[in-house]
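Hi there,

I know you've been waiting on this one. I reran it after we fixed the sequence typo, so this is the corrected version. Both the input and the resulting structure follow.
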Amino acid sequence: MIYGYIRVSTREQHEDRQIIALREMAVPEANLFMDKQSGKDFERPQYRQMVQKLKKDDLLYIKSIDRLGRNYGEILEQWRVLTKEKGIDIMVLDMPLLDTRRGKDLMGTFLSDIVLQVLSFVAENERANIRQRQAEGIAAAKARGVRFGRPPKPLPDNYHSAYQRWKAGTITGTAAAKECGMVLATFRYRAELYKQAETT
């Protein structure tokens, strides 16, 4: 039997390119499995369902090695499980050297293993670089004053009055928060922002 596995990292990403490539390899529609989630591990429902169906001498197509996963150690472990324990063949379309049907001799297996290890390392390294770039981008945006998350709700009309009386000590924070329809923690948080706005 012939199978195909497709993975996209988010629901916004499109899987069309992978589907077209696998259809060109005559993978039956019923044997196409697709997950829309991160490749950081193999806890993916469609992947697990597919692995249960795979039998010895079946053939699995994937578009590229990073569609299988992004964790170097786990890609190598899954490859071992699929090819050694399950006894299936794998063909990576973007990398013809990664075709376990070719070179079943010792040299062919050796070359395939080296290519797999290099590509798995590259896939994980790219993932680490993406994380670093994201973290640096967020830090730079914060330094420029960009705020993340939902914008705060507008203050109620009576907030200024309640805030001034609370600040003057004529009412408690609890009473001021109740007047404004807020919990005390929110009232105090907004009071801090209000105070900063007054001084700028």
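Quick highlight: Strands lie at 2-8, 32-36, 59-62, 89-92.

Best,
R. S.
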